[in-house]
Automatic annotation (TrEMBL):
The keyword Transferase applies. Gene3D superfamilies: 1.10.1610.10, 3.40.50.10210. It catalyses: 5,6-dimethylbenzimidazole + nicotinate beta-D-ribonucleotide = alpha-ribazole 5'-phosphate + nicotinate + H(+). It comes from Corynebacterium suedekumii. Its EC number is 2.4.2.21. This is Nicotinate-nucleotide--dimethylbenzimidazole phosphoribosyltransferase.
Amino acid sequence: MDSTPLFDAVAAPDEQAREDVFTRLAQADTVGAGLGRLGEVAGWVAACQGQVPPRPVTRARVVVFAGDHGIAARGVSLLDPGTSVVQTEQVREGAGAVNVLARAAGASIRMVDVSLDHEAWGDERVARSSGAVDVEDAMTAEQFDRALEIGRRIADQEVDGGADLLIPGDLGVGGTTVAASVLGAFTRTEPVAIVGPGVGMTDGMWKIKVSVIRDAMFRVRGLAAQPLEVLRMVSSPDFVALVGFIAQAAVRRTPLLLDGALVTTAAYVAERLAPGARDWFWAGQLTPEPAHLIALQALDLTPLIALDMTAGQGTGALAALPLVTSAVELVADELSSCG
């Protein structure tokens, strides 16, 4: 099933627009020439929009993909697996850090329950949790296909609805273990080098997490050239939906601001499945998770901020969003003032 392209070709952003921004800033006064990485961000937005000066980002949209993971029962986190369902309801009610940061940044939120461990069904549901990937497959082939299609469809809906910047988020206990297993399998990174602290991680839990990731990676040894099979076996439905969402957003020429380890690993996989998608990404933040740094390095992305935020749900990217919107407005003002 790996031989047929899953996504349409990804067009490159407008490099001439990016160069025009850099050239005009270099010719501007000392303020314009001294914007540093803010100028780079604005150049990226201009390239994504194909317009100089870039238009203000006014309809940023956070889309959080929620799912539980069978691996959480192994004790890889201090959080109880049932926490995911509770947190999802809180977000839907307007509570939690993601809502606070979204309101402050002028963004809106969409919550997608792909595979939380509760009784529910609908167009966006795939399964009740996922398999424990150290000993069993994460999902069936049918569930994989459904998850990928959900992610693709939601990206189309958001772009058609007018979103001008997308922030993919994740929610689910055990998500960093899934990210580390997938990234370790693709990059052949040793489990001890890819496992981070997690939420409230103790030494004993760290050892459990390393062994779980080691066993998951062993199950897909030799399958790096079959990315879909790797995902089916050791990721999760919410992760696959994220991959589909990110890849399709790039196909639709929409910029994405990335958050933490799970999202950035999904972006790494999206680039494998839809080459060229990476040019539509900007890294919002850096977390302490080794898998996050490895994924960023593989994508050659430098984050805007490093606040060690591990809350997920797009919160770290939301914290960086005001820098993106300010960069665009600063550059637009500078370019208009110098003609």
